[in-house]
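Q: Okay, next protein. This is Pre-rRNA-processing protein from Cephalotrichum gorgonifer. I've checked the sequence twice, so it should be correct. Can you predict the 3D structure?
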Amino acid sequence: MGSSMRKKKEKAQTFKKTKLKVGKVKPKPENYTDTSFKAKSISMAHQSLSETAPDEIKKFKHYLSLAATSSSDKQRREALAFLTSQLAAEPPFNPIGTREILAKLLPLTPSPSSPVRSQLLKLLECLPGDEVRIHTEEALRWIRVGMTHLSPEVSLDSLAVLDWLLEVAADEAVSCPGGWVMTLNAFCAMMGWSRGTNGGWTAAPKIGVRTKDSASHARQLSTLARFLQAGLKAEDAFVASPNQYWDCLYRVDRTRDPYAYLNLFGKRRDEDGEMYQDRESRQRVFYRRYAVLVAAGSEQAKREGGAPGRAGTILNKILLEGTIDGEDVAAADTEDLLSLW
C-alpha cells in the first residue's frame, strides 16, 4: 500500500462517525483533560494580601507613572482623571510638586488620543499659575511640537494648551528663550504662511492633511491674536523711586534667574532662541520678519467672512494697536550691532 493511500485512509478515519455499542463507554478525545480531582487549597503565584491600604503618596506616584508611560490610552486617561481629582481637591494634594508633573505630562500634548489630550488640559488647568510660570519655556517647547503636528486635531488641541498658558503666564511666554520667535514660526508653519520666491506672500492650499475649515482657521487666528496681544501690548509705565539708583547698584534681584538674558551658562543662542524681554525688541523682530505675513493672512481671512473674518478683524486691530514708529522699526537691535564686529 502506498503512502498516499495510507494518508487517505487516516484522513477518512478522522471524519468517520464512531458506532456506539450498548454497555461500552464512548471513547474519549485525544485532547481530553481529567478534571475529576478535588483539592483542599489552590496556590497562586505572585499574589499577596495586605490589611493596610497603599500610601497616598505612593498611589499618586503610581498613577503619574501610568499616565506618563502606559501604552494603553484608556489607562492613561483614567490615570490623568485620578490626578486631576487630586489636584482639584480642597486643599489640592500634590506631594511631588508642579515641576515633576509638568516634566512627565507635558510630552502628552501631541498625544494621538483625543480623550488623553482633553483630560491633560483639565489637569493643567488645576495647577497653580505662579508655579507654572517658571516652567514656561518647557511648556512652550511641547506646545510647538503639537502645533506643527500633522494631525489637525492634535494641532488645534495644542492651541487650547497655549490659551491656558497665556492665561497663567502671558509675560513669561513671550519673553522666555525662544518664546517669541519660535512660537511665531510655529504659527506660520501651522497656517501655511510663508514668503514666496519673489519676496511676496503665499498661503498653503486648503487641501491635504492640513485641511482648513472655517472653525479651525478662526481658532488659529484667535490664538495668534492673543499671543500677539501679550507680546505687543503697551507696558506699564515705570515709576522711579528716590532709591532707584542705589537699588540698581547694591540691591539683589529677588526674581528667578535675574541674569538669564546674559546666558552665562547656557548654550549659545541664535535669533530664534533669544530672549526678548521688552516690547520694543519684540516689535523690531516682529515687523522685520512677520508683519507682512500676518497682515496678509488677516486680510485674506477678512475677505473670507464668517468666523475667520471676525477673527481676522480682531487680529488686524491688535496689529494696529501694536504699531511702532518708523524710527523704532529702523533702530538697530542687538544682532545688528554684533554683526559689526
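A: Here is a summary of the prediction. Residues 81 and 150 are 27 Å apart (CA to CA). The chain has 17 helices and two strands.
Q: Noted. On to the next one.
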